């Protein structure tokens, strides 16, 4: 391999060798400079401090609330009614650790999707979904958005 490079080098004219000797490293430095500039790296990294004034904290809370959905309080009866409306059969609703476990029998995955979508719109997040058997038996764990 070294021999191939030596032959390549010797076949170049002296002017071309000088151009490669000085231009190659210069081009490499230019590429590195542009790469670092493109990544916009700064050293040392700047630290950001949080403005802890009451007005700034109120603004942060207000901005966060725009992105969060309020959690709608649920009861076992409300979950049962929803499941019945969506065609679930043999339903069971249990309150567990501030969340809910709903289970029942459905005809297909679309009914599970509908429940999960509705729950999310109400501020509830599913933590586990278990599907088994035929007809499809479903068990869903739901908790309020943190």
Unreliable residue runs: none
Q: How many strands, what sense, and barrel or not for the largest sheet?
A: 4 strands, antiparallel
How many β-strands, per DSSP?
Answer: 4
Strand content: 15-25%
Order of helices and strands: HHHHEEHEE
Strand order of the largest sheet: 1-2-4-3
Structural class: alpha+beta
- Total helices: the number is 5
Q: Average pLDDT value?
A: 80
Give the termini separation.
62 Å
Q: What percent of residues adopt helix (DSSP H or I)?
A: 40-55%
Shape descriptor: elongated
Transmembrane segments: 20-41
Pfam families: T2SSM (PF04612)
Organism: Marinospirillum alkalitolerans
Protein name: Type II secretory pathway, component PulM
Report on this model:
The chain is of the alpha+beta class and 146 residues long. Helix content is 49%, strand content 23%. It has a 4-stranded antiparallel beta sheet with strand order 1-2-4-3, covered by helices on one side. The longest helix is centred in the N-terminal third of the chain and has 26 residues.
Short précis:
With 146 residues, the chain is of the alpha+beta class. It has 5 helices and 4 strands, in the order H-H-H-H-E-E-H-E-E. The mean pLDDT is 80.
Please describe the structure with a list of short key phrases separated by commas or semicolons:
146 residues, alpha+beta, four-stranded antiparallel β-sheet
SSE order and pairing:
Blueprint: H1 2-10, H2 14-39, H3 54-67, H4 76-85, E1 89-96, E2 99-106, H5 109-121, E3 124-132, E4 136-144
Antiparallel strand pairs: 1-2, 2-4, 3-4
Protein name: Type II secretory pathway, component PulM
Transmembrane segments: 20-41
Organism: Marinospirillum alkalitolerans
């Amino acid at each position: 391999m070294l021999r191939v490079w030596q032959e390549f080098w010797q076949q170049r004219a002296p002017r071309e060798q000088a151009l490669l000797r000085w231009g190659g490293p210069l081009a490499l430095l230019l590429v590195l400079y542009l790469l670092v500039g493109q990544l916009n790296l700064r050293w040392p990294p700047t630290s950001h401090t949080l403005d802890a004034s009451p007005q700034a904290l109120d603004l942060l809370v207000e901005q966060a609330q725009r992105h969060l959905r309020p959690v709608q309080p649920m009861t076992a009866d409300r979950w049962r009614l929803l499941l019945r409306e969506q065609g679930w059969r043999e339903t069971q609703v249990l309150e567990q650790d501030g969340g809910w476990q709903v289970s029942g029998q459905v005809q297909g995955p679309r009914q599970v999707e509908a429940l999960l979508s509705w729950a999310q719109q109400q501020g509830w997040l599913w933590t586990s979904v278990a599907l088994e058997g035929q007809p499809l038996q479903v068990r869903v764990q739901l908790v309020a958005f943190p």
